[in-house]
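INPUT
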Amino acid sequence: MPDPAPAIRLRRVDKSFGAGEARIFALKQADFEARAGELIMLVGPSGCGKTTLLSVLAGTLRADAGEVEAFGRRLDGLGQAELTAFRRANLGFVFQSFNLIPTLSVRENVMVPLLIQGASRAEAVRRADAMLAKVGLGGREDGPPTALSGGQQQRVAIARALVHEPRLLICDEPTSALDKDTGQKVMAMIRDLSRSPDRCVVVVTHDHRIFRHADRIAEMEDGRIRRVVDDPSTLDTPAS
Amino acid sequence: MYRLALNMLFGDRAKLAMLLVGLSFSALLMAQQSSVFFGIMSWTYTPMVNIRASVWVSDREVEQVNDAKPMRDTDVTRVRSVDGVSWAAPLHSSIMQARLPNGNFKLISLVGIDSDTFAGAPAVLTVGRIEDLRLPNTVLIDEWGANLLGRAVTRPDGTVETVPLGVGDTFELNDTEARIVGVCRVKRAFTGGPFVYTTYDRAKAYTAGVRRTLSYVLVEPRPGVTPAELCDRIEAETGLRAWTSETDLWTWGERSLARSTFWWFWRNTGIPFSFGTAVLLGLFVGIAISGQTFYSFVLENLRYFAAIKAMGAGSGLLARMLLLQALAAGLLGFGLGVGMAQAIGRVMIEKGMPPFVLYPQVLVATLVLVLGISLCSALIGMVKVARVDPASVFRA
Ligand SMILES: Nc1ncnc2c1ncn2[C@@H]1O[C@H](COP(=O)(O)OP(=O)(O)OP(=O)(O)O)[C@@H](O)[C@H]1O
Ligand SMILES: [Mg+2]
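OUTPUT
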């Protein structure tokens, strides 16, 4: 089967931080591709540039050089306002530290992406509640997120990331703040709920126990992708 | 999203409370101090309120009502002869020492009014009749002054109580007896002293030895002649100074003696400066407390603002959210502060000390300033949020 056209493509992307002696090259001529409909994981040692790569393809960080293309559109060269509009229309985020707003209710947190897109309040409430039911948190809508366990909070975050049906879901270490069992469940939920023919899911992780949920795994080292593994089961146990 | 912005702030009870403390304290200080300022300033032109006549004629040199320059008695006749004058009556006003029955001396404000017309007589007599002033050696005293000059009486149980002066009581002015035949209710004055009303002629007797006793000529214009027009005519024909008697701060005309008095006190006393300082202090304290609190609210929520930004909220939306949060806090703080100012004011008005006049204009100005403080706070937050890098959401 020939590879479908990639939904996301980074080509020869450079990104450095700082200047002079302290300058750090976080991405060095990095190439990366993700396909529509797949869940791809990005793994590699700490500091190798995973988060930087993720930020570049999410449009929250601009590369110094190279091409960034998402869904047939070039992101490099877009202005700040256009990037913002791109994120608003196409992106869902799941963060390591959840980033749920503690003074808002669970439902209100999930409503945020819809409201930013300009949905009416009634519509946002309806869709948020439906999404919360899908992640198994029906009945907890009115409480504060801080009353929930870590796993439950991450499920709220998943609901928030998917409620507006984004084409690109980005997860940075979604399980590293959770215990083993909860991490597995959360990752399984990300896989099951996000699966869609035209959605592309990129997950950065250190957690080899969740590798099996990936369609492909890209290994990063020192600012570039070293290799892409098509059969994650070969990576299921750490090399060491 | 705006409702969420409000919930975000209102969900943070501690921050909200701090913000409201800062903003309401600021509003309270500004509204309350301004009101006491206007209250004290209104005391400066008290005679204009207590003594009612459309036009006041004075010596050319007079700038403010409390500082009359004596005129000749014949000036009354000269004013009376000006075309458009319906009636003109003499008025005497001076500060004197009263000798009380117990031998103490107290300063009083003596007001001598025309015994034919009683022009300038107090509007409200709680005891007695104005006509009784035609009896020999009689005076009226104001309620508050009656208390002030009252005598201390020790009750059988040992408590000391002040019995106010009343009808029939006497004191001495310049060794001449003054017998109280009535008690009136008048507005308190800046210069303090109890008001003692008597007839113009008897005032002459009480001030024995003073050559000129005419302080003002009170004038009423004929129907169809406005006070301001009459002032022009009187000044042109007599060379004296003529004033209108409007006392409403916001509508008084160029010729108002109350207005001239207000500005005289403004220029020549530290009153505006000291109250202005208090108002400025309120403003700065407000900016400091609420600016600081709002800033720490923004700092604490910065990662959430960054997340919202990463999710695609534009800087305009974020700025409007912050503005709404700050202005909502501002409105609430204003309401609380002004509510407190009014509560304090009510107590002050009951006690009559210090004077308190809360003008709607002061409320509007306070509202504008408090919202200005909120706006400053929001701006500080906006700068912070505008600078936050949406990529920072991935850093723990
Ligand atoms: N905003 C920044 N300013 C300066 N240096 C940065 C910044 N972001 C990343 N770096 C540096 O760039 C390099 C790559 O960072 P990055 O966060 O992408 O690594 P990572 O693979 O995500 O690491 P980890 O597994 O620890 O999350 C690191 O050396 C990091 O210190
Ligand atoms: Mg990272």
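end of record. Chain A has a mean pLDDT of 90.
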